[in-house]
Write a structure and sequence with these properties.
Layout (H helix, E strand, L loop, with lengths): L2 E5 L4 H12 L3 E6 L7 H11 L5 E5 L5 H11 L3 E4 L6 H6 L1 H22 L3 E5 L30 H5 L10 E5 L7 H14 L1
Parallel strand pairs: 1-2, 1-4, 2-3, 4-5, 5-6
Helix pairs in contact: 1-7, 3-5
Length: about 200
C-alpha cells in the first residue's frame, strides 16, 4: 500500500486530495498547523471526516518545527510527500512577513530535506498562481514568463528551490501551481495527476 504524507490536509485542496487517495486505497498521514488565518472550526471538521477512515492519521504541527515534522516523517515513512501547506494571503504578507518566511520558506525546506533523507519516490510541492506576476493575458499559461509582482517576491521560492536539493538523490521533485482563482475542474485534474504519480 502506497503511503502518502500530505501537508495542509485541513485546507480545501489537501482535504479533497486526502479523500481521493483514501478512496483509492492509499495510506495517508496529514500534517496541518491549524492556523487561524482560515476558520479553524472548518479545518477541524475536515480532519474529523478524514479520521473516520482507517487508513488516515494526522498530526497537528507547524512545518517550521523541524523536530516535529522529522519525527512524523520518520515514523510514517512515506513513499510520496505532497506539500500543500503554507501561509496564504497577499495582504497578510505585508502585515506579517515573518510568518511567510517561517512557514513557506523554512517549512518547505524542512519538507524537502525530509524527502531527500528518506529518499521518497515523489515529492509534489504546491506553488502559487502569484508566480505569474503582473501578467495581463488571460488565462495564465505555464509558459508565461513575466516578472513577479513586487509583493510576491517570495512566491516563486518553491519553484526555484524545489529541484535543487534533490539533484543528487533518488527523489523526484515536482512543483505545481494552485491558487484561489484556479477553476474547479483544474483542481480536480491535478488531483488526479498527483494520484497517478503516487
Amino acid at each position: 500500500m502506497t503511503r502518502v504524507l500530505i501537508t495542509g490536509t485541513a485546507g480545501f485542496i489537501g482535504f479533497h486530495l486526502a479523500k481521493f487517495l483514501l478512496a483509492d486505497g492509499f495510506q495517508v498521514h496529514g500534517f496541518d498547523g491549524m492556523t487561524d488565518y482560515y476558520d479553524v472550526t472548518l479545518k477541524r471538521k475536515r480532519h474529523a471526516i478524514l479520521l473516520q477512515t482507517a487508513n488516515f492519521s494526522a498530526t497537528e504541527g507547524m512545518l517550521e518545527d523541524v523536530e516535529v515534522f522529522d519525527r512524523v516523517a520518520d515514523e510514517f515513512l512515506p513513499d510520496v510527500i505532497v506539500h500543500l501547506a503554507g501561509q496564504s494571503g497577499v495582504r497578510y504578507s505585508l502585515k506579517n512577513p515573518r510568518s511567510y518566511i517561517e512557514s513557506n520558506v523554512m517549512g518547505t525546506f524542512n519538507v524537502m530535506e525530509a524527502a531527500r533523507r528518506l529518499q521518497v519516490r515523489h515529492l509534489l510541492m504546491a506553488s502559487t498562481y502569484s508566480v505569474y506576476g503582473a501578467n495581463t493575458e488571460m488565462p495564465y499559461r505555464e509558459t508565461d514568463m513575466r516578472p513577479p509582482r513586487r509583493r510576491h517576491a517570495l512566491a516563486p521560492s518553491t519553484e526555484c528551490t524545489g529541484p535543487a536539493p534533490h539533484s543528487n538523490s533518488q527523489s523526484h521533485s515536482r512543483p505545481f501551481r494552485t491558487g484561489a482563482t484556479t477553476p474547479r475542474c483544474g483542481r480536480w485534474l491535478w488531483l488526479r495527476a498527483a494520484a497517478h504519480l503516487a
